[in-house]
Design brief:
Elements: E1 4-8, H1 12-25, E2 28-32, H2 35-45, E3 49-53, H3 61-69, E4 75-79, H4 84-92, E5 97-100, H5 105-132, H6 145-159, E6 165-168, H7 175-185, E7 193-197, H8 203-211, E8 212-213, E9 225-226, H9 228-231, E10 236-240, H10 250-259, E11 261-262, E12 271-272, E13 276-281, H11 285-290, H12 296-302, E14 305-308, H13 317-331, H14 344-352, H15 358-373, H16 385-388, H17 404-418, H18 423-430, H19 434-443
Parallel strand pairs: 1-2, 1-3, 3-4, 4-5, 6-13, 6-14, 7-10, 10-13
Antiparallel strand pairs: 8-9, 11-12
Helix pairs in contact: 2-3, 6-7, 13-14, 13-15, 17-18, 18-19
C-alpha cells in the first residue's frame, strides 16, 4: 500500500508543484489550503504524513500542529527562511522535521519515506503489544510490601517523563522490563523506545551508534547515519550496562543530558533532541567513580531517580509466584495450547529455588518446562535437575496437580492454620499486607 500524504499550504503554486511531484513519485496525495481544511481531511482519512506550512490564512501553523499531534499525526513543516526559530519550537511540540522553501523535491521524498517508515514501525509495535504483550503494570513487580513500594516508586517516576533514571541490580533482575514499564506508563508511551547495551562495543562504534556520523567521518562511514538519540527523539533511550561506557564518551553523554544537543561524529551542526534517558547497571558505580573509571558528574546526572531491583533470592515466595504467573501468561502466546497448570511439587520447587540467574533464568526454565510438557501439566520431571534438586523443609504440600490459584489457596490456608488464624502474623510470613491477605481470604472463601 502506498504512503498517503496530506499537504496543507495556502500557496496554489506550492500545492500544484509539490502535489504533482509526489503523485508522480507514487504517493497518494490530498491537498488543503487552510488549517481547518487540513484538520478535517486528516480527521477523516488519517494520512501517514502531513506536510504543513507554518503560515496559513485562518490559524497559525503551530495551532494546527498542536491539534494534529493530539491525533498522533506525523508532521513535517514547510517554512520560509525567516521561520526557522518558529520551526525549531514546533519540533519541540512534536513535529518530525522541517524543510525550508524552496523545497528540494528529492530531499522531501526521502524525508517523507523515513517519516512514513517510523509511523509504520510505531503502528506495528502497538499492534504487537496489543496482541502479545501482557499488561504493562507495576503490579507485575510483586505483591510484598517491599516490591509494592518499588512499584509505587516506578509509577511516580513514570509520571515525571523528563527525569533521568538509573536502574540498579544484579544481571537478570528485570531492569530492561522496568525501563519499558516506565516508558509505557509515561506520556512518551506512543513515541520510540530505543535500547542499546554499552558493554563490548568499541568507543568509536558506540559513539556512532549513539550520536550518528557524517559521511566520511571515519574509514567505513560511506553514508550519513542518524544516531540513536535522534531515533529516540521525543521518546526514551535505554542505556544498559552504562557502567561499561568508555571514559572518552562520558563527557559527550553528559553534555547531551545537560543541554539536549549534540553533534554527529565528524559533524559541526548542533542537533537538538528531547529524549528521556534510562540507564541500568549491575556494577557499583560509586566504586567506579572512586576508581576514576566513571565520571562523578555523570554519575550524579544519571542518578536523579534510582530504582534498585533485588535478586529473586531476596524476594518473598509470593513475589516469585506472581512472577511465575506473569511468565506463564506471557509464554502462553508463544505456545498455543500450552497448559497453565503446574503440579504442586513442581510449583513448590519453582517457588523455592534460589534462581541465581534471576528473572531471566526463571523465564527460560518455564519455557523449557512448557516444551517438555507438550501441552500437558508441568510436572517435576519437566524441570531441570538443578531446580528439582532444590528441596525445602518438611512443610506439607498439596496432594495433586493444581492450577497456580489452587496452590496459592492451599498455601494461604496452611499459613493461616500455622498461626492459629492470626491474619497479621500470616500476612507477615506470606510477605503481603494484611489488607491483601483479607482480599485473598474472601476470594478463596477461607473465612470460615
Amino acid at each position: 500500500m502506498s504512503c498517503t500524504v496530506l499537504l496543507v499550504d495556502d500557496d496554489p503554486q506550492i500545492l500544484e508543484s509539490i502535489g504533482s511531484y509526489l503523485e508522480r513519485t507514487g504517493y497518494e496525495v490530498q491537498l488543503a489550503s487552510t488549517g481547518g481544511g487540513g484538520l478535517a481531511l486528516h480527521e477523516s482519512h488519517g494520512q501517514d504524513v502531513v506536510l504543513l506550512d507554518l503560515q496559513l490564512p485562518d490559524q497559525s501553523g503551530l495551532e494546527v500542529l498542536e491539534q494534529l499531534r493530539t491525533h498522533d499525526a506525523a508532521v513535517i513543516l514547510l517554512t520560509g527562511h525567516g521561520d526557522i526559530e518558529t520551526a525549531v519550537r514546533a519540533m519541540q511540540l512534536g513535529a518530525e522535521d522541517f524543510l525550508t522553501k524552496p523545497v528540494d523535491m528529492q530531499h522531501l521524498s526521502a524525508l517523507i519515506d523515513r517519516t512514513a517508515e517510523k509511523v509504520r514501525l510505531r503502528r506495528e509495535v502497538e499492534r504487537l503489544k496489543s496482541r502479545y504483550e501482557p499488561d504493562l503494570s507495576p503490579a507485575g513487580l510483586g505483591v510484598s510490601p517491599k516490591m509494592r513500594e518499588i512499584a509505587r516508586h516506578v509509577a511516580l517516576i513514570a509520571a515525571s517523563d523528563r527525569t533521568t533514571v538509573l536502574l540498579t541490580g544484579e544481571s537478570g533482575t528485570g531492569k530492561g522490563w522496568v525501563a519499558r514499564l516506565i516508558h509505557g506508563l509515561s506520556r512518551r508511551a506512543g513515541r520510540p523506545f530505543v535500547d542499546i547495551n554499552c558493554g563490548g562495543l568499541s568507543p568509536t562504534f558506540l559513539d556512532s551508534e549513539l550520536f550518528g556520523h557524517e559521511k566520511g567521518a571515519f574509514t567505513d562511514a560511506k553514508e550519513m547515519k542518524r544516531g540513536l538519540f535522534e531515533v529516540a527523539d521525543s521518546g526514551t533511550l535505554f542505556l544498559d550496562e552504562i557502567g561499561e561506557l568508555a571514559l572518552a564518551l562520558q563527557p559527550k553523554l553528559l553534555r547531551v543530558l545537560e543541554v539536549k544537543s549534540f553533534r554527529r561524529l565528524g559533524g559541526t551542526l548542533e542537533r537538538t533532541v528531547d529524549v528521556r534517558l534510562i540507564a541500568a547497571t549491575n556494577r557499583d558505580l560509586e566504586a567506579a567513580v572512586a576508581e576514576r573509571v566513571f565520571r562523578e558528574d555523570l554519575f550524579y546526572r544519571i542518578s536523579v531517580a534510582v530504582v534498585h531491583l533485588p535478586p529473586l533470592r531476596e524476594r518473598t515466595r509470593e513475589d516469585r509466584l506472581t512472577l511465575l504467573q506473569w511468565f506463564l501468561a506471557s509464554l502462553s502466546h508463544d505456545f498455543p495450547g500450552a497448559s497453565s497448570e503446574i503440579s504442586a511439587d513442581a510449583l513448590d520447587r519453582l517457588a523455592s529455588y534460589v534462581w541465581p540467574g534471576n528473572i531471566r533464568e526463571m523465564r527460560n526454565a518455564l519455557e523449557r518446562a512448557l516444551i517438555m510438557a507438550r501441552g500437558g501439566r508441568i510436572r517435576l520431571e519437566h524441570l531441570t535437575s538443578e531446580i528439582r534438586g532444590r528441596r525445602r523443609g518438611p512443610a506439607g504440600r498439596a496432594a495433586s496437580g493444581q492450577s497456580l490459584e489452587q496452590v496459592e489457596r492451599l498455601h494461604i490456608e496452611r499459613t493461616l492454620k500455622k498461626h492459629g488464624g492470626n491474619r497479621t502474623h500470616a500476612a507477615e510470613e506470606l510477605g503481603v499486607s494484611r489488607a491483601t491477605l483479607i482480599k485473598k481470604i474472601k476470594k478463596y472463601d477461607l473465612s470460615s
